[in-house]
Prior knowledge:
3 helices
Amino acid sequence: MRSKLNDELSALAVAAPEVVSRRLxxxxxxxxxxxxxxxxxxxxMGSEKFDAFTASWMMMCQEAWKVQFKQWETALGxxxxxxxxxxxxxxxxxxxxxxxxxxxxxxxxxxxxxRRMRKRKA
Length: 122
């Protein structure tokens, strides 16, 4: 069964190793003397992880609030009427949406790095 979470995980599993291998290749071929470009890449490597994971946590929190709101809406509907509100297709939302939302910023950053690094000449 195909899901958005599987798509996010697959895309990240392909992009991340390529970024790591390209960076290691560039750093290893610098002969111990990094150019300004290599130093910027090393700084970017650290700062982008912080940015991507901060965005990831923010997206996960936002999605978790949505899931909790839907659960409260369902619970209150059940208590008030004894039936599930008709707007909801299932009584409880899918929790994998939280993980999918959290992976999206990390995957986007990894894929952007792959595109940027493929343009670079060794």
